Amino acid sequence: MSISIIVPTLEEVDNIVPLVEQIEQTKVPFGEIIFVDDGSIDGTREKIRALATAHRVRLIERDGAERGLAGAIIAGANASSADVFVVMDADLSHPPEKIASLLQPVLANEADLVIGSRYIPGGATPGWPTWRRFLSRVASALAYPLTGVHDSMGGFFAIRRECLLHFASQAAGFKIVFETLVRGRKTLRVREVPIVFRDRVRGLSKMSLAQAIRFAVAWLRATGRRITERKTITPPLPAQKLSGD
Fold first, then answer.
1. d(CA 23, CA 99)
2. Entry pTM
3. Residues 162, 179: contact at Cβ < 8 Å?
4. CA–CA separation, 33 vs 6, rounded Å?
5. Other Cβ atoms within 10 Å of 152 Cβ, number
6. What Rg do the C-alpha atoms of the chain give, in angstroms?
7. Region of poorest pLDDT, from 13-17, 133-137, 200-204
C-alpha cells in the first residue's frame, strides 16, 4: 500500500528542514511528504520548494478564503493517489519515530484509523503547564462519549484514504480526528498508539480562541445528533405471555 505524509503549514519556516530530516531517518517507505501551506509569508514556501529538488517533498499552496487545518488535510489527500495517509503537524510536536507504529495496524488490515494518543499508558505531555493539561484533558473527556477514544484532539494519525475522504470531506474544524470519529463511529476500526507530545520550540502556536469555539460548536452539534438518533430509535415491543388455551 502506498503511503503519503500530509503536513499542513502556516509560518513554519524554521521547522521544515528538521521535520523532513527526522521523517527520512525513520526509514518508513513513504512516497512523498505533501506540505499544504495556507498563505505563509515567512519563507516557508520557499524552503519547501528548495527541498523538493533533492527530497520526496511536494508543496500545495492555498491562498483562497477557504483555509484551515481540516481543509488543508483534505486538499493534500485529494492531490495524492496514496492508499494510506499519515497526518502530522509541522511544529515538531509529533514524534516522527512513531510513524511506523501508526502505520502498522493499518497496513496489517487491523485498523482503518490509528491515533497518536497522549492519554493512554505510555503517552505524555512533558513541559505543559497545569492549565493547558487541564483544558486538554477536559476537551478529551467531553469528546470520549462521542468518539470512544481517549485522545481525539492531537492531530497525529494514520488513516486509509477512502475513510478520510468519506468521513472527513466535510470537516471544517481544527480537530479533524474528532469530526472523523463522530461521523464514522459505527464503521471505523480505530486504534490508539501512545506518543510523547513535545511542545514547539520554534514558531507560534496556531491554537486560538476561535479554534476552541469551533470545537465547542462541533461538540454541541455531535451531541445533538446523538440525542436525536436515540430518540428516533423505535423501542422493541414488550414480550407477550403466550396463552395457555
1. 8
2. 0.82
3. no
4. 6
5. 28
6. 20
7. 200-204
User: Count of CB atoms within 10 A of residue 73's CB?
Assistant: 26
First to last CA, the chain: 65
Tell me how far apart the alpha carbons of residues 183 and 173 are, in angstroms, rounded to a whole number: 13
Output the nine-digit C-alpha cell for 29.
517507505
In tens, the pLDDT along 205-234 reads 444 445 555 555 555 555 555 555 555 544
Residue position matching grid coordinates 502556536? 205
Q: Check if the beta carbon of residue 87 is closer than 8 Å to that of residue 61.
A: no
d(Cα 21, Cα 24) in Å, to the nearest integer? 5
Alpha-carbon gap, residue 116 to 114, rounded angstroms: 7
Which is nearest to 36 in space by CA: 25, 48, 26?
A: 48
44 close to 9: Cβ distance less than 8 angstroms: yes
Give the pLDDT mean for 124-133: 88
158 has pLDDT over 60: yes
C-alpha distances in angstroms, 5 versus 28, 88, 176? 10, 8, 16
Total count of residues recorded for the chain: 245
> 109's torsion region: left (phi>0), alpha (psi -120 to 50) or beta?
left
DSSP 85: E
User: Where do the H-state alpha helices sit in the chain?
Assistant: 16-25, 44-51, 69-78, 99-107, 130-147, 161-167, 176-184, 209-232
